[in-house]
Amino acid sequence: MKILANDGIDAKGQAALEAMGCTVLTEKVSQDALAGFIQNENIDGLLVRSATTARKELIDACPNLKFIGRGGVGIDNIDAVYAREKGVDVFNTPASSSASVAELVMAMMFASNRFLYQAGGAMPVNGEETFEVLKKNYGKGKEVKGKTLGIVGFGRIGMSLAEYALGCGMRVLFFDRSKEEETVTLSINGSPLEVNLNVSSFEEVLRVSDFISLHVPKQPNGSSVIGSAEFALMKKNAVVINTSRGGTINETELIEALDNGVIAGACLDVFENEPRPNAALLKHSKIITTPHIGAATAEAQERIGLEIAENVKRIMDAN
Ligand code: NAD
Q1: What is the pLDDT of residues 36-82, one digit of tens each?
Q2: Which among 245, 284, 303, 307 is annotated as catalytic?
Q3: Which domains does the chain have, with CATH numbers?
Q4: Ligand 1 proximity of 102 Cβ (cutoff 6 Å)
């Protein structure tokens, strides 16, 4: 099999593919030139992360393509239904990144409660001259322990986040439109500790939580899950966190809610208009932003690479 990993692949995943006899190309081909490259180079499989798209036109232009693999969870950058109709295998690596995304959310909650983002930005610029002023401005932190975390979307990442948050002494509530209850298993020095959680109503999660973290897929028609009506139900000190998909929080209504003091803050890893997010979000003093790095850890990328290799083996075995 000749494979183009157009958004890169972890070294161990690449080695596993090569050990199976595959040739792996990792040069980046521009979106415009991609279909031509796949045809001219007789590529059997295309691997993407979130940057490269595989739309209907590309699938039509590459009739010999056997598979499209997404290193990550969301496959909204692939016309998956159409590809499968055309006999192209489409797979993703859903389980590999959950812990990494959950850890980013924990980091955001700690950073938010202790102004790490703002203080970290101000110290190199003004720390020498105005240390005492910065100390006064940012010395109003809060503990995460004892606070309530409301998780919206209790799938792989939501449940992984619950493990971390429960371990830190937070109270955890969840809302998921297709779940009634779930058991989260914490590992305490290697010993499992099971915690049963029952679903709460969406309204209750919004009303009582100090942090509200979204872990839903991209919604049909790109509709938002949280907008003005939901912000209005939240506590004034609430901080919303989105590491799921751009558009699940209405960005314009988020800025309004922050500017009008309806809620206290937001942490965003994903944006409606990636890779050129709205600058008003990036520059807002009450928003912590990161450039879609939820799954960007060494461990997650290694697991993703190996999960890709397993999928390619499945496809090779079936052929
Ligand atoms: P999952 O499929 O395991 O869980 C999603 C859950 O959301 C499901 O249980 C589903 O029932 C629920 N849900 C869907 N719509 C809902 C709604 N409107 N209200 C309430 N619940 C709803 O998915 P996952 O693996 O946990 O991933 C969650 C999100 O994280 C996806 O959007 C994925 O693309 C994103 N993600 C982001 C990064 C990143 O780098 N930031 C990395 C990996 C995944």
Answers
A1: 999 999 999 999 998 999 999 999 999 999 999 999 988 999 999 99
A2: 245
A3: 2-94+298-318 (3.40.50.720), 98-289 (3.40.50.720)
A4: no
